[in-house]
Amino acid sequence: MIVTQEYHQHVFTLPPGAVDLLLIRHGQSQPARAGVSFPMVDGHGDPPLHENGHMQARAVGERLKSEPISALYVTTLQRTHQTAAPLAAHLDMAPKVEADLREVCLGDWDGGLYRIKAAEGHPAFQRALAGQEWGEIPGAETTAQLHARVAAGLARIAARHADQRVAAVVHGGVIGAAMSIASGAQPFSFNGAANGSISRIVILGERMIVRGFNDCAHLN
Question: By residue range, what is the domain housing residue 127?
């Protein structure tokens, strides 16, 4: 009897020494209102979660509670802490803060005004979209500055967690930056991840691999 060697399709495996990083966008936060600023933390608007955001946080916790997650990260802003809380309880794990993964600083428009100006189609907002440049917003950090600090934050996490799966609850602008850095896509190509969504990148030194974006299977 002749036995024929079979060759199956390649299945992705984590490169030795890499970190498998799940990037979770925080749940929906409270709405902006004209004339009323969000609480501020170090120049960043810091709204708490909306009721819908708490439901999204619970859904994230249920989705990931059985995953072999070695560490859980949040940013300096309360909506990430609130979103991480259900998962942290399931994992019996205290989240760690990675400040460089905080949301893009929106300068004069932080505190909720950005949402209002975007809805109005303000010319600076339109220029920011057209040029994929956050710095078009008065007083905001530039796209290059955002990418530099996000890359630094990701590198620190990767250095601490070789051969591990890690989750980080972050922000839409940060996910957009991370995915752009990892894929080489234009800066705003991945902006707009849904609240409560899960994206995934693998990091090994300066090499980054995109493994998933905007997974919402756990959300209604």
Answer: 19-215
* 57/67 Cα distance (integer angstroms): 16
Q: Percentage of the chain with pLDDT > 70?
A: 100
Residues 6+ apart with CB under 8 A from 199: 22, 23, 24, 25, 175, 178, 179, 190, 193, 212, 213, 214, 215
Task: Give which of 85, 77, 30, 38 is closest to 59, Cα–Cα.
Answer: 85
pLDDT of residue 1: 79
Task: Note the pLDDT of residue 220.
Answer: 80
- Give a yes or no: residue 169 inside a domain: yes
Specify the pLDDT at position 105.
Answer: 97
159 Cβ contact partners less than 8 Å away, ≥ 6 residues apart: none
